[in-house]
Amino acid sequence: MLLNTIKENMAKFIQNNPQNFVEELDMMQIWDQPLMGVASASDPLWEKLKEPNVIGPDHLTPDEWLSGAKSIISYFLPFTEHVRSSNRSKGLPSKEWLYGRCEGEIFNNTLRKLIVRLIETAGGKAVAPALDERLTVANHVSNWSERHAAFIAGLGTFSLNYSLITNLGSAGRFGSVITDLEFEPNSRPYQEIDEYCTKCGECIDRCPPLAITKKGKNAESCSKFLDKMLKLNKPRYGCGKCQTAVPCEYQNPTLI
């Protein structure tokens, strides 16, 4: 099956591609092996995302990205222990995390292109919204949410800090590709949008700009802090303190 071929190629790519290793940091590996899920393009939750109290009307459905879309392949790339442990201290983000966030996303984009190429080689059409010129971000809201796609694909639920908690934790990055090929969608082993979050509140104290409360996260405060990190570390930026040294860093805390 093509889906198995994609999984096998992703595994090899993560293990062998030079972009997954940082030469300046003694060949530090950024990503571990991923989780992958599939969502149906006809899932009613895509229309739900257009509601003002969810994401908003500008969020595009899979069919708006790709006419005739049938399936969305979503995946979670977990940071390696090396990257995660470096960022567990309080204060500013670690150099390893900054490289992981920025060089790691360069790798993620290459991985998106690999999946698109595999689908097209098999005779299908595919679009990676994160690489599409139609992608927009306004007021910290994008017209395609990788985390919400992962939620619909059964990979995890949201946390107090708006990260998505998977069975491999929340410290990592997501990616997705929309295709007109049809794959069996994953079931969602949860009912609530925040079912994997225990509301322990440890991420509240971890946040340098104090952007997280028991009511959620202030996106504006978080964004301003990231802007400061960019000025200090240009061209790299990031934080990730709310995703490290917390119970959901590398596991689903409800399964402990």
TrEMBL record:
Residues 187-217 form the 4Fe-4S ferredoxin-type domain. One of its GO terms (molecular function) is oxidoreductase activity. It comes from the Archaea. Coiled coil: none annotated. InterPro entries: 4Fe4S_Fe-S-bd, 4Fe4S_Fe_S_CS. This is 4Fe-4S ferredoxin. It comes from Methanobacterium bryantii.
